[in-house]
Automatic annotation (TrEMBL):
Entry-linked InterPro entries: ZP-C, ZP-C_dom, ZP_dom
Domain ZP as annotated: residue spans: 26-273
Protein name: Zona pellucida glycoprotein 3f, tandem duplicate 2
GO biological process: binding of sperm to zona pellucida; egg coat formation; positive regulation of acrosome reaction
GO MF annotation list: acrosin binding
Endpoints of the signal sequence: 1-19
One Pfam family in the UniProt entry: Zona_pellucida
Length: 378
């Protein structure tokens, strides 16, 4: 970061203000320093001044009765949010005065932002092993499986009535890496185990992580129980009814602290009519491109842009059927909750990955009988 901080661009934008407080922002090598001159009224309640969730590191009362609050903290502290967009690293937070505790809104709020130019050759921290040495990134193992209706085990059938829900679990083993974020970048349903030009295709997740099927139907991502796993609660669709269907997904392991328009999990909230970022709704602006095209403004070079760790997986075959008893749920759907109690059955078992070259290097497609449970490993 030694080169990065030298090219800092400081942006301080007032989001909302009830007074004319003066503040100054210094973006330093590894930290941010904010000095805030406040009125005598605010000086009497200095404990309610915050940068993110941090109180002033120092505070002094001036001869005029006004106060000078200084916040000097590491860029990784105080709930400061980091984003990587194009060639920039963006750190942002809010400078606030909160006379009342949350959830009541701040009486005064200034949006603070430090922007750094990304150095050439920068690698996201999550690609660096926590300890030891690594030769490439082939050690990661991705998983994908169908779950039963109440999320307590693997699915025992591959037959789904039209309009019912298909719980799909995807995960990546963290092993000796830093914490990882599992994303589903693209998912389609197809009538063939391999995507071909002649394959009939139904889009499920498009545009680098947008759950498109949730806008036309009731599909949703369920709240995460861990950053390295994702549960897609997919509503069965009117596609290739009665035929064998395969779910093709592109799984990506990424930094859980860094989101951008190409690395996200977005879903459409019908109650608000807006797209929402699953992992941090406050950054839902990243999902606005879901109705158009989620591509960076500038074309990035392959060598300079980290792509994350990627695995293409196939789940199936499964069959969607329509009969006289089929009833498509209304938009008012009660989604299941994820309980810690059932997570043990998803714990990776070394013996399950029985190929010496490792599970990441191949795709396993379930071809057993219709009533047999699908394998958990893909």
């Amino acid at each position: 970061m030694s080169l990065l901080w030298q090219c800092a661009i400081v942006l301080a934008v007032v989001a909302a203000s009830a007074a004319n407080e003066d503040f100054n922002v210094d973006c330093e090598k590894h930290s941010i320093k904010v000095t805030w001159k406040v009125s005598s009224e605010l000086a009497e309640n200095a404990a309610r001044l915050f940068l993110g969730h941090c109180v002033p590191s120092t505070f002094s009362v001036l001869p005029t009765g006004e106060g000078m609050a200084t916040f000097h903290y590491n860029l990784n502290g105080c709930a400061i949010k980091k984003r990587v967009t194009g060639k920039k690293h963006i750190y942002s937070t809010n400078l606030t005065y909160r006379p009342d505790r949350k959830p009541k809104p701040a009486a005064i709020s200034h949006h603070i932002k430090c922007v750094y130019i990304r150095p050439e050759g920068w690698i996201p921290p999550f690609l660096i092993p926590a300890y030891g040495s690594a030769e490439g990134h082939g050690g990661l193992v991705f998983h994908m499986a169908l779950l039963n209706e109440d999320l307590t085990g693997l699915a025992k059938t591959s037959l789904f009535p039209l309009g019912s829900f298909i719980p799909i679990w995807a995960a990546v083993d963290q092993k000796d890496h830093q914490p990882l974020l599992l994303l589903l970048e693209e998912c389609v349903a197809a009538t063939t185990p391999e995507l071909q030009s002649a394959s009939l295709v139904y889009p499920i997740i498009t545009n680098k992580g947008c759950l498109a099927d949730g806008k036309t139907g009731n599909s949703r991502f369920l709240p995460r129980y861990h950053s390295s796993a994702l549960l897609l609660y997919l509503q069965s669709f009117k596609f290739a009814l009665g035929e064998e269907v395969y779910i093709h997904c592109k799984l990506v392991a990424w930094d859980p602290e860094v989101f951008d328009i190409e690395k996200k999990a977005c879903q459409y909230i019908k109650e608000t009519g807006e797209w929402e970022l699953l992992d941090d709704p406050s950054q839902s602006d990243l999902c606005k491109c879901c109705d158009s095209s989620c591509k960076p403004r500038l074309k990035r070079g392959v060598d300079s842009e980290p792509q994350g760790l990627v695995q293409n997986s196939v789940l199936g075959p499964l069959t969607i059927v329509e009969n006289s008893e089929t009833r498509i749920p209304s938009e008012s759907v009660k989604y299941p909750t994820v309980e810690q109690g059932w997570l043990s059955f998803l714990s990776p078992q070394p013996s399950t990955c029985w190929r010496p070259e490792g599970c990441i290097m191949f795709q396993y497609i379930w071809r057993s009988g219709r009533n047999d449970p699908p394998p958990i490993w893909i």
